[in-house]
Fold:
Amino acid sequence: MMHFTQPLPLSLYIHYPWCVQKCPYCDFNSHDVKPGIDLVTQEQAYLQALVKQLESTLPMVWGRPIQSIFFGGGTPSLMSVQGLNWLMSQLRALLGFGSDIEITLEANPGTVDEAKFAGFRQAGINRLSIGIQSFNADHLKALGRIHNDHQAWSAIEAAKRAGFDNFNLDLMFALPGQTLEQAQQDVTQALRAQPKHISHYQLTLEPNTPFYRQPPVLPDEDLAWDMQLACQQQLKQAGYAHYEVSAFAKPGQQSRHNLNYWTFGDYIGLGAGAHGKLTLPQTAEIWRSQMPASPGAFVHLMDKPADPTTRPGGSPSYGRWHKVAANEVTFEFMLNALRLQRGFDLSLLNARTGLDLASIEPKLAQMEKENWIIRTENQLELTSQGQKYLNSLIELFLE
Structure:
């Protein structure tokens, strides 16, 4: 195994686990705010636990600046401005921030107003990801969202008035009862808001969700494909580059945090259910971490002494750590890198994993034979066929 000459890019993911109510399609680690529960008190204990987890992780990342922070959930916009201010001050004290760090917070309409957005911005948030999903009131109701179309626009306008000009809008398509024209109308509405970034992805029925147990009537596969192509064309004509399977951005406005995932960079994962990935420069070993999913179990774990056996090198840490096996590294790299629509420089495989290109040469030849990729001397790019059969393509690396 080779030695890395330079540390990989490093990001920070922070999970805020609570929602007003869980949507019937959602399989993320989110938990309803129970009636009678004091969220402020829960939040204080949770934020303190986040900092304790980070402190235990620091020996693995000394001297490495953070290039991006992403607050995901759950609904991070439920967090109090006071709590976020305190947490950001702790992060600045413990970590080195890159000079142009991107700090994103997910926000859902119905949980924010202009004053709260202004407080988030003052705390250091410089990018928002607003969970619109649709501008159609009937479709929002079918999805179980707590906001309507008017509240969607109110959230966007409040964010702008608070000074946010860098924001993403989340949109879904192939919704229950949705027509092609309605899917396109959602994109038209989103473009009116002039976001720097749009995430546009198909509703899927995930196991362990109410929609999976009692499926709604969704557009068939052909109609869903027509929606995807038509909406992609709208976004292209409006000047948004399709740079990842479900991500579109104005020039220079790609999500740096997500690009770090897709190019197999490192990231610390803090909070209930959070995952992390860290690479040891000395050995090129890749280690992944996972925290317990329950917010209560997470906070309780942080009340205990750290386990000295859970992390490489024997330093005390929390959660579960495991080393990625050598025969899994290529699959994990491709699972991420092949999401990039314009492909990637083939030297990235060596830079991120320590593996030589020769180790995947037979797979690349098979992909070319199937007309799934175009390969030049230094670049690999998916064809339209490769994009359509991406799952089959990735499964090659499981063999």
